[in-house]
Design brief:
With 203 residues, this protein is mostly helical. 56% of the residues lie in helices and 4% in strands.
């Protein structure tokens, strides 16, 4: 019942100790979730007492209901200036817990929303110019057109493809590679344990 707080325990060792304590309430009950969220806030406020703290929650559309409850609890505290909270998610996607959290965040005072659009073809060309400065103009232009289509304008995918050494003079035959395959290749050098740790932190 405590797995849902994994994203927070992975970055805050003191909270891992809270979750491991014998007297910690089970998180799959509403009172238990409230107690755990309060303890998480106490730890973050303690960190913020000595230095600025910004808690970034990425890929929030994948959060489980327990973690969404904790984010909402922390957001109320952030509205009071206790800490800064950044929540990033894909628009119009996600499970019911995230959609409910999104509505709750929209109602909070002081919350600012920012929609990041995919890279345009011109912006993709700028990325290619930066990453392939020694390539010919024709090669960069051809690569930029292919990369924009292949990545869908997503910077992470575009950079991952460039990291693989894709070249404008020898482009892959597939017009749009499978994104999951791209990231699988990036993760391939990691050990099984490292992949498990990364997967736990990404939940």
């Amino acid at each position: 019942g405590r797995v849902g707080f994994g994203p927070f325990s992975s970055v805050l060792p003191a909270f891992r100790a809270v979750l491991a304590a014998d007297d910690t309430p089970v998180a799959d009950s509403l009172p238990g979730r409230g107690v755990l969220a309060a303890r998480l806030l106490e730890l973050l406020e303690a960190e913020a007492a000595g230095r600025p703290v910004v808690l970034v929650v990425d890929d929030a559309h994948w959060l489980d209901s327990m973690s969404c409850d904790a984010v909402e609890y922390l957001a109320h505290a952030a509205a009071d200036g206790a800490l800064s909270l950044v929540v990033a998610a894909r628009p119009d996607t996600g499970e019911a817990p995230w959609l409910a959290l999104q509505q709750a965040l929209d109602r909070l005072p002081g919350v600012a929303g920012l929609t990041l659009e995919p890279l345009t073809e011109a912006e993709t060309a700028e990325l290619v110019d930066h990453r392939r400065p020694d390539a010919s103009f024709a090669s960069r232009a051809q690569l930029a057109r292919w990369l924009h289509n292949a990545s869908g304008g997503l910077p992470g995918v575009a950079n991952a493809l460039l990291d693989e050494g894709v070249d404008g003079d020898d482009l892959p035959s597939a017009p749009r590679p499978d994104v999951n395959e791209v990231y699988d290749r990036r993760l391939a050098p990691l050990s099984e344990d490292a992949r498990l740790v990364g997967g736990a932190g990404a939940v």
